[in-house]
Design brief:
Strand order of the largest sheet of chain B: 1-3-2-4-5-6-12
Strand content of chain B: 15-25%
Shape of chain A: elongated
CATH architecture of one domain in chain B: 2-Layer Sandwich
Radius of gyration of chain A: 23 Å
Structural class of chain A: alpha/beta
Distance between the termini of chain B: 88 Å
Number of helices of chain A: 9
Order of helices and strands of chain A: EHEHEHEHEHHHHH
Number of strands of chain B: 21
Oligomer: heterodimer
Strand order of the largest sheet of chain A: 2-1-3-4-5
CATH class of one domain in chain B: Alpha Beta
Number of helices of chain B: 19
CATH superfamily of one domain in chain B: Histidine kinase-like ATPase, C-terminal domain
Largest sheet of chain A: 5 strands, parallel
Number of strands of chain A: 5
Distance between the termini of chain A: 35 Å
Shape of chain B: rod-shaped
Structural class of chain B: alpha/beta
Helix content of chain A: 40-55%
CATH topology of one domain in chain B: Heat Shock Protein 90
Chain lengths: 206, 648
């Protein structure tokens, strides 16, 4: 993963902080986009690629923690490093529970910030990979008929065909045909592979 | 001839009553002040005039006083009055008769006529005692003793060395011998006028009573050997006055003529003395008391009042004994130096040059003696006033001290609440300081990285350093504001711009507003005139109002927390600063007591903030208040007089 492909989004209402961080991160080789408010960031194209937020907690209008919640609620998973002029413990707990990478008090050392950014970007990279895989699986799963999807959900529970047939109210033979088609369409050899695939797609396996 | 019935009187008591009667018109406090004086006055008057009980059964005693000269001679007038006064003090009821021989102006055979006159007049009812005043009268009595009431005791007075101490005066004669000390008078005169070169002597050697004068004459030369003496005795008056008018400086005149005059003149000695004093350029000294007061500087002689008193004592005693064969002995009275204060001044002599025991007459009474009640009253009033002034000054001092103390306490309390307010703002202040610190650190470390990478160019490092410097200054400003408010010091009055005041306070609470999600607007009037005040205290007021406003908006949802700081000019003489919030407003039940101490709506507040704000604004001559907004929230404002108004 190259730093050049990653973007650090700096959101701080304080111009001098914005400017200095921009300088620092550029010197560290990152692409930097700076925003004066959370709302300004939200108005941006949601497709951020691989990137992370360096987000000030205390800002007028919409503050850092509120932005974090808004992003989570809209499924935009961007790793966040919080920075704060004056943080307290409840604030940092709330941030970390919301999935923040780090919570830095101003003034912070560049080393700490860059380390946190590195971790955040790694996370972003990983999330990006996962997202790509699950997209593939979802595409495969979309090829199944509703009946095949139903049978698959029963199969991954480890039930034998006879029980599946009883549960779906059909014959054991029909179940067997559907199961063969599922295994074929999804290009898996065993139930274990099928279970792993489902997990990647975010399907809950009991 | 005069007959005067002298009856002891208690008349002087009236004076006390008159005085008290007059008092009615005087303001009461004056009366109170004078009360003591008046009472003492009464007591004195009463003790003086209380008569000794007299023998009511006895008939009035008859006293005949025989004067040598005419009735108007001041010595006679003086003796007459003083003797009567002295007799009166003895408490006897006396019929008082006077006769005047006037022997200077009438020929010698007139004495026979006088004797017959007296016999005719008093023969049927002779006097109980005869008083002979001055040597001629005494000699007259002695000469005519056998015809003229030989059984009546004689008391003489005004007689000096003419009658020697052991002189044989005969049956029923006693009296008072005075001293007329010519040599002592000259001594005193020379001592007071040490530059005297010439002494002009007028004596009365032609007179019968001047036997002793010739003895003096020889002693003069001995006591003042370097002084020239000239004898002017026996010259007619015009010639005498002519001589005297040419008396050179550094001379003095010694007038030794006791009762008589220069030859051929019918003028009395007093008239002569007065005339001489006017004509003279030199001081005159005499040997006889009555002359003092008629241009004579002084005399060494027996004082007339002492003579009169002693004579009266003798008369009283003689009357009491009632028998001419059993009379008290002749008394001799010593001489005292007697001076006329006015003449002493005329000749430039002072009181301390006088011999001890001197009697100084005609000295104007001191202001104190002249106006005792006035002086006492005025003095009392001045004392009272002084006391009052001192009391007022002390009271004023105490009040000033109390005011200073109150001011100090107010200052301390204000400081305490300032510290408490700043304590509430620590998060905000940390935020405000940490922002520039973070920027500084990031800038510095960015610079390091750029340098390490070797890719840094001069322009960029310059920008970085400029930003660092700016941020450092910003952090410093926050600390300065903070320290200014935490400072504990005396009130310091300066000329202030209210807009600057607002900016300073915003610099302190900006972080707090961000932390509390409050958006703020500044609506500052560019026309706001300067005010006169203590920057720290006024900032404290504004800070307090802003912090209250922020507190009032905590209950409001984040999006609606709006604060407006406004400066305006309501009229030409005042400036108003308003803090408009969108908070919950003042609860209606607290509207009346918002500025009272210990009234608070905050869970941890002491309720002192607004009370202190009010005392600060009042101390600045301003007003503080609040109004509920038409929409939501409250506007707290304070109004200060402009510098112009304070000056006028």
């Amino acid at each position: 993963m190259s730093a050049a492909e990653s973007t650090v989004f700096v959101i701080d209402d304080e111009p001098s902080v914005r400017k200095s961080l921009g300088r620092l991160l550029k010197a560290a080789g990152y692409r930097v986009e700076a925003f004066t408010s959370a709302r300004e960031f939200l108005q941006r194209d949601p497709n951020v690629g691989v990137g992370c937020l360096v987000l000030d907690v205390q800002m007028p209008d919409l503050n850092g923690l509120e932005l974090q919640r808004a992003l989570t609620e809209t499924g935009r998973h961007v790793p966040i490093i919080f920075i704060t002029g004056h943080g307290d413990i409840p604030m940092s707990v709330r941030a970390m529970k919301g999935g923040a990478i780090d919570f830095l008090s101003k003034p912070f050392d560049a080393k700490d910030l860059l380390e946190a950014i590195a971790r955040a970007l790694a996370t972003a990279q990983l999330q990006s990979t996962h997202r790509a895989e699950s997209d593939d699986v979802k595409r495969l799963l979309a090829m199944l008929t509703p009946r095949e999807h139903e049978v698959m959900l029963e199969v991954i529970t480890g039930k034998p065909n006879k029980q599946i047939a009883a549960a779906l109210g059909t014959s054991e033979k029909t179940v067997k045909v559907h199961r063969g088609r599922v295994m074929h369409k999804l290009a898996v050899q065993s139930v274990a592979d099928l279970v792993r695939l489902c997990e990647k797609a975010g399907i809950r396996v009991p | 001839m005069k007959v005067t019935r002298v009856v002891p009187l208690a008349g002087r008591r009236l004076r006390g009553r008159e005085w008290r009667g007059r008092r009615a018109g005087i303001p009461f406090f004056l009366v109170a002040l004078c009360q003591a004086t008046a009472v003492f006055g009464d007591v004195r008057a009463a003790t003086q005039v209380e008569p000794t009980p007299m023998q009511a059964t006895q008939a009035p005693r008859r006293v005949l006083v025989l004067f040598s000269d005419n009735r108007l001679l001041p010595a006679n007038v003086l003796f007459d009055a003083s003797l009567r006064e002295a007799l009166r003090s003895h408490g006897e009821q006396i019929d008082y008769y006077s006769e005047f021989l006037d022997e200077v102006r009438f020929p010698a055979h007139h004495q026979e006529r006088m004797q017959n006159l007296l016999l005719g007049k008093y023969g049927e009812d002779p006097p109980d005692v005869i008083v002979a005043f001055a040597p001629p009268a005494l000699h007259f009595c002695l000469r005519h003793r056998s015809q003229l009431f030989p059984q009546v005791p004689i008391v003489f007075a005004g007689v000096g060395d003419d009658i020697s101490e052991d002189a044989e005066l005969g049956h029923g004669v006693t009296g008072v011998r005075s001293s007329f000390d010519g040599p002592a008078t000259l001594d005193v005169a020379l001592r007071l006028h040490p530059r005297t070169q010439q002494v002009f002597v007028i004596d009365a050697s032609s007179r019968v009573d001047s036997a002793a004068v010739s003895v003096w004459w020889s002693s003069f030369q001995q006591s003042a050997p370097r002084t020239t003496f000239r004898n002017l005795t026996g010259q007619p008056l015009p010639q005498l006055l002519g001589e005297l008018s040419q008396v050179p400086e550094n001379s003095l005149v010694l007038d030794l003529a006791p009762f008589g005059s220069s030859a051929g003149s019918s003028l009395s000695t007093q008239e002569m003395a007065e005339g001489m004093a006017r004509a003279l350029r030199a001081p005159i000294y005499a040997a006889f008391d009555p002359l003092v007061g008629y241009g004579v500087v002084g005399a060494v002689t027996t004082p007339m009042d002492a003579v009169c008193q002693k004579t009266a004592d003798l008369v009283a005693e003689v009357l009491e004994r009632g028998h001419p064969g059993d009379l008290p002995a002749v008394q001799t009275l010593a001489a005292s130096p007697i001076f006329d204060w006015r003449q002493l001044r005329r000749w430039g002599s002072s009181r301390n040059q006088l011999p001890p025991g001197s009697i100084v007459r005609f000295e104007p009474p001191s202001f104190w003696k002249q106006h005792v009640p006035l002086v006492v009253t005025t003095g009392g009033l001045i004392l009272l006033q002084t006391g009052l002034i001192i009391a007022l000054v002390l009271q004023s001092r105490r009040r000033q001290w109390a005011e200073r103390e109150a001011q100090r306490r107010r200052g301390e309390l204000a400081h305490m609440t300032r510290v408490a307010t700043m304590g509430e703002l620590t998060a905000s202040l940390a935020h405000e300081i940490n922002q520039p610190l973070a920027a500084i650190l990031s800038n510095a470390q960015a610079g390091q990285r750029l340098i390490a990478a070797g890719g840094i160019i001069g322009e960029e490092i310059g920008e970085i350093l400029a930003d660092i410097a700016a941020d450092d200054r910003r952090a410093g400003e926050v600390i300065r504001r903070m320290r200014a408010l935490l400072r504990k010091g005396d009130s310091e009055l300066t000329i202030l711009d209210v807009n600057h005041l607002v900016a300073e306070v915003v610099g302190l609470v900006r972080g707090e507003m961000i932390l509390q999600n409050v958006s703020h607007t500044l609506d500052l009037s560019s026309a706001a005139p300067p005010v006169h005040g203590d920057q720290v205290q006024l900032q404290q007021v504004l800070l307090n109002l802003v912090v209250n406003a922020l507190d009032a908006m905590k209950e409001i949802s984040a999006g609606h927390r709006r604060l407006v700081l406004r400066t305006s000019v309501p009229d030409e003489q005042s400036v108003q600063v308003s803090v408009v919030d969108s908070g919950v407003g003042v609860p209606p039940d607290r509207v009346e007591q918002v500025f009272e101490p210990f009234v608070t709506t905050k869970p941890h507040g002491m309720g002192l903030g607004l009370a202190i704000c009010r005392s600060i604004i009042q101390a600045h001559g301003g007003r503080i208040g609040f109004t509920n907004n038409a929409g939501r929230g409250t506007t707290f404002w304070f109004m200060l007089p402009t510098v112009e108004r304070v000056r006028t």
